[in-house]
Amino acid sequence: MGFPTKRPRRLRKTDAMRTLVRETVLSPKDFILPLFVTFGKGVRKPIKSMPGHAQLSVDNVVREAKEIKTLGIPAVILFGIPKRKDATGSSANDPKGPVQEAIKALKDKTPELIVITDVCMCEYTSHGHCGIIKNKDVDNDATLELLSAEALSHAEAGADIVAPSDMMDGRVGAIRKTLDESGFGDMPIMSYAAKYSSAFYGPFRDAAESVPQFGDRRSYQMDPANTDEAMREVALDIEEGADIVMVKPALPYLDVIRRIKKRFGYPTAAYSVSGEFSMIKAAAEKGWLDHDMAMLESLVCIKRAGADMILTYFAKEAARVLRGGK
Ligand code: PBG
Fold first, then answer.
1. Which of 126, 155, 207, 271 is the most buried (most CB within 10 A)?
2. pTM of the entire structure?
3. Per mean pLDDT, which range of 66-80, 151-165, 199-213, 247-261 is the poorest?
4. Within a domain: residue 229?
5. Which of 50, 39, 164, 47 is nearest to 102 (CA)?
6. Among 102, 101, 76, 99, CA closest to 89
7. Mutate which of 146, 204, 280, 314 for ligand 1 pocket (most atoms within 8 A of beta carbon)
């Protein structure tokens, strides 16, 4: 039986009616806000390509965290910009590094805020790649030790979750083993399981000062054309002990999010990356689209596709709009 008995428009008549039948509801609780931590005091160095975002020193990270809490956002993910970089990224596990210091300060001042840390070498290496270089390529197995040491230093500082983003083979297992052997058997790993080699990371690499000095990341990050490969990556990470799996970027990869959520039924995160954020900002600045509507539409679509949580640079702005203020 079809039209005129069936009229789908009946349920779209008013805002109240649309709210009643809405299938996916976005909430500030869905968001994880990325923050860039740098050394020094009183530092707030704006990131040109990411309006509203800045490299922050630890004191300003704490200030930011208090605001985040009042907005109902449950978690942040920290990225570090160290004082010095070298070929092996040796400052990544410095117990006095910006990330480690920020974790301690946050756990002291805003203990209920979940502190996730990005575990990767690219912010700490002089060449900007995600591991140690041998024969012009990243050496997988040698890098695992460095990543494990970095993750352990985050755990020791008090982080709640570590999130390896390097895409080395076996990193989740290596980190899991190190954490378990050091008394951190309870610490969850959020793995960047299906991380694609993407042009949409452009603004982030400015923000984290991690542009590769030669070549690109295609020998370790995934080919955007593949989804079966994403299934294999996720299966391996779960086998190695991942507790939460992530897809990154988000918007151009909604099919991947959907497939992973359906197949594995694991807590699934989506990282709406810097390029997704900056595109909307730039277009809105030009008056080419409505900022808040484009922002909320993107986020609800990522959730609809199957994401249980969204890492987004819009976290604060979206939370404000959702709470009905500005
Ligand atoms: C580190 C890392 C990157 C992002 C998150 N972790 C950059 C990269 O792989 O080049 C990108 C985040 C974004 O673009 O917002 N490896």
1. 271
2. 0.97
3. 199-213
4. yes
5. 39
6. 99
7. 204
CB-side exposure of 84: number of CA atoms within 13 Å?
A: 7
- Residue listed under structure tokens 């984290």: 208
What is the torsional sign of CA 8, 9, 10, 13? positive
Distance, C-alpha 253 to centroid of its chain: 15
Return d(Cα 89, Cα 95) in angstroms, integer: 14
> At 282, which CATH number?
3.20.20.70
DSSP assignment of 136-148:
TEE-HHHHHHHHH
Residue-range definition of the domain harbouring residue 162: 22-322
Distance CA 294, CA 284 (A): 9
For the chain, what percentages of helix, strand and coil (3-state, to nearest 5) are there?
45, 20, 35
Residue 192 covered by a domain: yes
pLDDT digits (tens, 9 = 90+) for 157-185: 999 999 999 999 999 999 999 999 999 99
- Measured distance CA(286)–CA(238) in Å, rounded: 43
pLDDT tens by residue, 210-239: 889 998 999 999 999 999 999 999 999 999
Atom of ligand 1 nearest to the CA of 130: 16
In a domain, 8, yes or no: no
Domain annotation covers residue 13: no
In the chain, pLDDT over 90 holds for what percent of residues? 94
**Beta pairing, strands 114-119 & 133-134:** unpaired
Catalytically annotated residue among 248, 261, 281, 303:
248
